[in-house]
Design a protein that fits this description.
Elements (H helix, E strand, L loop, with lengths): L2 H22 L7 H4 L18 H20 L11 H24 L8
């Protein structure tokens, strides 16, 4: 057996063993105290299952979008060593322009305002 097959076999076996152990090991005994929301020792004042504001999700999605933009632009410095570095620069500029236009659109529509 070659090295790659050995690594795949060991990682698959280890993952399976760890998944089985994590499934059977914990003791699931839910009671009232575990199921009740924790509010610093006080009795719960209301339901802890209130829905989040839609604006929270919008800001979270925008954060993820701009976080992924960094991952897309990370290889940009190595693009200078390609045979056509202007192609890399034009694609990176296109991504940045599209994201900037999207941010400007969200800003003008009031999507980033917390209070209405």
């Amino acid at each position: 057996m070659n090295l790659v097959m050995t690594i795949i076999l060991v990682s698959t076996l280890l993952s399976t063993i760890l998944a089985i152990i994590s499934f059977w090991l914990p003791q699931m005994n839910p009671d009232y105290e575990k199921l009740s929301p924790y509010e610093c020792g006080f009795d719960p004042l209301g339901s802890a299952r209130l829905p989040f504001s839609l604006r929270f999700f919008l800001v979270a999605i925008l954060f993820l979008l701009f976080d992924l933009e960094i991952a897309l632009l990370l290889p940009l410095p190595w693009g200078d060593q390609l045979s056509f570095p202007m192609t890399t620069f034009s694609w990176a500029s296109t991504i940045l322009i599209l994201l900037t236009l999207g941010l400007i659109y969200e800003w003008t529509q009031g999507g980033l305002e917390w209070a209405e």
